[in-house]
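Collaborator request, handled under Task 6.
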Amino acid sequence: MKKIQMVDVVSQYMRYECEINNKILNVVKSGAYIQGAEVKDFEFSLSQYLKSKYVISCANGTDALYVALMSLNLKEGDEVIVPTFTFVSTVEVVCLLGLKPVFIDVDKDTFLMDPYLIEKHISNKTRAIIPVHLFGQCCDMYSINLMAKKYNLFIIEDAAQSIGAQCVFSNSSQDRIFSGTIGDIGITSFYPSKNLGCFGDGGAIFTQNNKLSETIRLIVNHGQKKKYSYDIVGLNSRLDALQAAVLSVKLQYLDLFNQERQRVANYYDKVFSDIEWIKIPSQSTGSDHVYHQYSILLSSDINRNNFSNYLLKNDIPTMIYYPKPLHLQKAYSSFCNESLPISEMLSDSIISLPIHSEMNVEQLEFICSTIKKYVES
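Structure tokens returned to the collaborator:
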């Protein structure tokens, strides 16, 4: 049996080796390594795929969040509502800009921002909400959007883990819309392990607002519209042409990659639904799930470290996303003086299993049979 990986980026590359190599070679021969036609072509293709009016690529997903917030001209001390159960990038960019993160808890079943907790955390300093489409599915954007409109708040969607996922956005329509294209601004990451990943760092920002798109495009390129003419203070955050070339090939297969991840998740679901000490992932209402991660909850009588070590001894890797919620981290604990019990519980009992587009039935059978044999000592 082929070695089991949490994410098998090498095997995915081997499937499309000729296409990717040809694209890369064309860029190398062109001499246009920063911006240029390859980057513009990728931005256009991604815009077409997502049905987003504007797509601006950048250096990475963290920069994408940082630039998104910069473009809104928020003032120091303004508050931004964020989930505590997420990767650190969502919150660190808020702090780096002198803004104040306001942590809220998540739903115990979907692990997503609980929209019903937003209103009680809104103050006269609240300016924005950052819903995180965690693990591959969309937050309840209908409810979040209603709240944002009621209090005149910006929405920045963190879609770093959910590219290709869609959700129903209206109670009156079954039309589906892509994650990242619903709020004022959306972002994604092209980190190699993502569903759409490049061979290094990369990111993108989405908006339907022309004025915002122009500001964002200025920010990522030193604040300049033309060389050596600076309209605003910006930074250097550009997707290089080699990464754009890789992403252009992979974008053609993104739906296939997501379908293969869903196939893996469905296999897991069927086996684990009969194991009483495992809670399988729940799907958010109105959203599909592209399974950037497949995360299960272990019952309280199962020692997670023992379980993880047992799998590792059988050459099955696992990961914990996330071992401590952000409101309990040293860097951010001063921003929160309340308990957020759901996130704290999740951090103690969650564990993620291997999932990617290259997994085969033999590997899945082995993982599932090994887990079924586990007995807590």
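The cover message to the collaborator said: "The two ends are 28 Å apart (CA to CA). The first strand starts at residue 54 and ends at 58. Please let us know whether this matches your experimental observations."
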